[in-house]
């Protein structure tokens, strides 16, 4: 497994997107996002996605160098048409607008459609927190990409539909960033297991007959993909998976039915993300300093001992990613060979 320095990898991936016609600024935004996902331990949303993006660009499904436009715009809301630029470009643009509107109005809602796969959604939570904002954001698969079975169901009906809750703390380098799929895991993590030739943990997927499976190939319909009926991911929660299923349905009406992308439907393989982002400026409420200190005090409190058997600490959302990034900035990034 090759090991690569993050700066060299970013430059190389940037050159790939430049060759596809993306302006340098956009190409660097996509590459930096993907490499940062690797640095933070989310290899499923890292440079493993490059081949997928290249293929979709060559097929004309992603269109580099287009400019996102505002289809609707008020003091506190906006609807963005990404014109099928890369999802990282569209999502970053949309979050910037939501932040500025929240700074003026106290709260804002921005939605976006016609954008490519936006990568690790937690990055946009970090973007908001760095600006001193609180955000709740989520994405669906732009009406396509059925991957997840409903609780009790045996066939794909929903996307992985991730959600993000993020907020600043009194330490600007340590925001709270909860980034989670409403499925038991992201599809890309199954992709990583398939590429490494390892089995999944029980409780992740069903095979095409609706039976539990640990073989990642079952999700993709064998090798080559599609050579048999495809399986499905399960909603997060295990025996209480109805909770993950319910959250996934909520994502569908926020990041789907609320905008022209619509909710997930069969036979639609667009391959992008539709976005919902709401941003809150604490300065319009308790005040930013009081908010940040209150959250920091709570984090300090929940991390206090005693700990459960088998644990020697409590980590809060965003902390594991920061630790992994610190390690990989020094050790480099191990890349899949396939």
Describe this entry's structure for a reader:
The chain is of the alpha+beta class. The protein has two domains: 3-184 and 234-284, Malate/L-lactate/L-sulpholactate dehydrogenase, NADPH binding domain (Ribosomal Protein S8, Chain: A, domain 1, 2-Layer Sandwich); 189-232, Hypothetical oxidoreductase yiak, domain 3 (Wheat Germ Agglutinin (Isolectin 2), domain 1). 37% of the residues lie in helices and 17% in strands. The protein contains ten helices and twelve strands. It has helices spanning 6-19, 24-39, 50-58, 87-105, 122-130, 187-196, 217-220, 242-257, 288-302, 319-331, and strands at 3-4, 69-73, 77-81, 107-116, 134-140, 163-167, 176-180, 205-206, 212-213, 232-233, 272-280, 333-334. The chain has a seven-stranded mixed beta sheet with strand order 2-3-4-11-5-6-7, with helices on both faces. Strands 9-8-10 form a three-stranded antiparallel beta sheet, with no helix packed on it. A two-stranded antiparallel sheet has the order 1-12. Helix 4 links the parallel strand 3 and strand 4 (107-116). Helix 1 (6-19) runs antiparallel to helix 2 (24-39). The mean pLDDT is 94.
């Amino acid at each position: 497994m090759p090991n690569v320095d993050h700066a060299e990898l970013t430059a190389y991936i940037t050159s790939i997107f430049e060759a596809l016609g993306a302006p340098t600024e956009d190409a660097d935004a996509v590459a930096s996002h993907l490499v940062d996902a690797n640095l933070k331990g989310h290899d499923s949303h890292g440079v493993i996605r490059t081949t997928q993006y290249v293929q979709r660009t060559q097929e004309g499904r992603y269109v580099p160098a287009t400019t996102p436009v505002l289809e609707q715009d008020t003091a506190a809301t906006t609807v963005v048409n990404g014109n099928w630029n890369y999802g990282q470009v569209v999502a970053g643009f949309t979050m910037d607008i939501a932040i500025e509107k929240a700074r003026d109005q106290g709260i804002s809602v921005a939605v976006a459609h016609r954008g490519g796969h936006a990568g690790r959604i937690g990055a946009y939570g970090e973007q908001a927190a760095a600006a001193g904002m609180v955000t709740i954001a989520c994405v669906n698969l732009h009406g396509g990409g059925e991957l997840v079975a409903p609780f009790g169901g045996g066939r794909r009906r929903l996307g992985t539909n991730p959600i993000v809750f993020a907020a600043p703390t009194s330490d600007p380098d340590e925001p709270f960033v909860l980034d989670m799929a409403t499925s038991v895991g992201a599809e890309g993590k199954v992709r990583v297991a398939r590429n490494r030739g390892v089995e999944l943990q029980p409780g992740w997927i069903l095979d095409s007959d609706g039976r539990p499976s640990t073989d990642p190939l079952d999700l993709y319909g064998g090798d080559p993909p599609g050579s048999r009926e495809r399986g499905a991911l399960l909603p997060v929660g295990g025996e209480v998976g109805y909770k993950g299923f319910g959250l996934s349905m909520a994502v569908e009406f926020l990041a789907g039915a609320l905008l022209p992308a619509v909710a997930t439907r069969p036979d639609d393989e667009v391959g992008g993300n539709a976005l919902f982002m709401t941003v809150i400026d604490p300065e319009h409420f308790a005040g930013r300093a009081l908010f940040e200190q209150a959250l920091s005090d709570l984090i300090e409190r929940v991390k206090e001992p005693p700990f459960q058997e088998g644990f020697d600490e409590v980590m809060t959302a965003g902390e594991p990613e920061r630790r992994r990034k610190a390690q990989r900035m020094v050790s480099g990034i191990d890349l899949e060979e396939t």
